[in-house]
Hints:
Number of strands: 22
CATH superfamily of the largest domain: Thiamin diphosphate (ThDP)-binding fold, Pyr/PP domains
Domain Thiamine pyrophosphate enzyme TPP-binding: 411-562
Helix content: 25-40%
Organism: Paracoccus saliphilus
GO molecular function, one term: 3D-(3,5/4)-trihydroxycyclohexane-1,2-dione hydrolase activity
Radius of gyration: 25 Å
Domain Thiamine pyrophosphate enzyme central: 217-349
Family: Belongs to the TPP enzyme family.
Amino acid sequence: MGETVRLTAAQAMTRWLSVQMTGEGERFIEGVWAIFGHGNVAGIGEALHGIGDDLPTWRGQNEQTMAHAAIAYAKGCARRRAMAVTSSIGPGATNMVTAAALAHVNRLPVLFIAGDVFANRRPDPVLQQVEDFEDGTVSANDCFRPVVRYFDRITRPEHLLTALPRALRAMTDPVNCGPVCLSFCQDVQTEAYDWPEAFFAPRVWHIRRPEPDMRELEEVAEMIRAAKAPVIVCGGGVIYSQAEHSLAKFATRFNIPVIETQAGKSALPQDHPMNYGAAGVDGSAAANRLAAKADLVIGIGTRLQDFTTGSRTLFGGAKLASINVQPYDASKHGGVSLVADAMAALRALVNALGDYRADTADPRARADWLAAVDAHCAAPAGGNELPTDAQVIGAVQRASTTDSIAMCAAGTMPGALKLLWQAAQGGYHMEYGYSCMGYEIAGAMGLKLAQPDREVLCFVGDGSYMMANSELATAVMRRIPFTVILTDNRGYGCINRLQQGCGGEEFNNLYKHCNVEAQPQIDFVAHAASMGAHAVKATGIPDLEAQIAAARTRDIPTVIVIDTTAAPGPGDGLEAAGHWWDVAVPEVAGSEKLKRAYAEYLGHAARQSLAN
């Protein structure tokens, strides 16, 4: 038997995590976000203090939002690096469940280390313990089970010998990548064990690049060779595969236009001649026209979410070939699967397609669309009208550089940005798998940590800001600069528009339609400034552009508040933008407006494909 070292379970965990490396010689787990409580302060807290800068610890303000920061960091690193998040038992742990679901849906790695009850059960029920009357093994942490890729409850120290490698395997697996939860009983954290020294030898984790099956490759190649009007749908898997340049070469060589999902946007810069913009519900006229007339849709690294497919009405009778590292995604919508890493598949297809050339590309349609976007986003000519979201986006676009990254998560802005933002390569970061309100500010902080040399421009509505803003204080404390563009339309303007679009009446979304005694008059500038951020209210579009430029000189977050109108949607006034989205309408209607909305709904629903 080899040499051993006696450590507590928590000390062993932190030591092991500190020597898990990437192929580039960096720690895979960059550090640990922590809010301590009675379930983790004595065990994990002591261990983190002891290991010091070998595994840095950062304090957040809320368990959910510090987890959002960790998730944004992993997304900003294209899943090549990640962070851990630890909490106490009870509410600290369940606060992280929403973030775990966000990471699960978006296939992003994060390590949740949730404090748990006593394994020995001597003091049960302890403070914050959730008791199940029929199952003595249940705790609040069982809420994580459906929203993580791997779950383990650590009830003995030596469980870590297998649990930790399994956790990193899940987080570095391109097929099953996602969050992990180690539910760490608080007494076990402090228990000692004689650990093999070999357990703490540094280990390098390489991201696999699965090659395509030759039969599947030939089937998809034959579909492409037979297609007259193919179109590529670019998903986030292109970015996680680091296949951006491979996609650009492939699309150019074979003259196949590329249309984008939220996760895939900026894999090709907007100025690439084969980039026709956003697809689907929040899609461009050029992209959706290509999709509607396509005879073959080639999905690359996309899970084909309803916004991309127009709730299964956009692609009509086109055949579908789906390139994806995850077989579950590759087989969606009755498509022909090519299960492989995106870069490996594209390289193999180049050899299989020979001198094939499509005739789908329409440069004039692309140029017309981009000209329409410029006009739609132009500064207002004058008057006292509140600016639209498009005009705000236009101002930020004009003030941005090729190093800027636009980021967002929920509300009107995700659809508007996907439709209108003209990204440089890698200049777009959107959490739209879960579209979680409150991700934005914490996510901007995590993204800036992942890409410190790029400017982060965080778009957030007043509704999302009110849900989660406290990590501004963390960013101030740590001197992490980013710019927040806070658009104030005095409520949930996005859902107010959806409510009306579904035939309903304006109700409970904008403050003026709520059952309140008086509309709140929230001073967002004073609020952000109270946490130490530089905060200012833009007097209009020209001032917004100037304030964005000025923010680059600071080493703390800048919050720029601008009042906007709640009226127009992302594509209003932009010809042929967008597509139908399936949001169910009441079958029994109390108004003529609702009856018309239901009749229109039935017409769209009749066109839906029911393929699996």
